[in-house]
Amino acid sequence: MDIIELDTERLLLRQWDESDFPIFYRLNSDPAVMEYFPNTLSEEESNRVAKTIQNLISERGWGFWAVEEKGTGNFIGFVGLHIPKPELPFSPCVEVGWRLAKEYWGKGYATEAGKAALNFGFGELGLKEVYSFTSVDNTKSRAVMERLNMHNTNQNFEHPEVPKGNPLKEHVLYKITNTQWYKNAT
Q: Which structural domains are found in the chain, ordered by start?
């Protein structure tokens, strides 16, 4: 399978390299980055997630790409497309998602890379719609979704992987269709 790489003005979305794993672990063990997840990840858990993402890209050619800042060559996190687990109430679908190290927040990187991922999804993959979701309190990710011209579906759901009673269980669901994407692209 050919591995797809996406190129933006400031970023390269690429296949993961083993050298990304320690940086990804630092990101996943940062309480600020993981504030809207049930817990931070151990090194073993983080490496398992990275390897799974890497393998999915090898199988499909696309996925949650490793994001590299062009000016420095630094790995800064991931952005891309993913097929979520089937137990979500809106599955099957494709989601756009991101997780960046906090020193790269506020630079527009998630939006820039998210646009490249959506453009690929609608253009190359021919997707009809793409979803994104997060804890209802995650205003930063919700703001990225809105900058990507995604719309709140007003269909909040309880995430099945978040423990009962956890305040992060309720998630908001955003969506954009290919028609909406191309309407806003002109």
A: 6-185 (3.40.630.30)
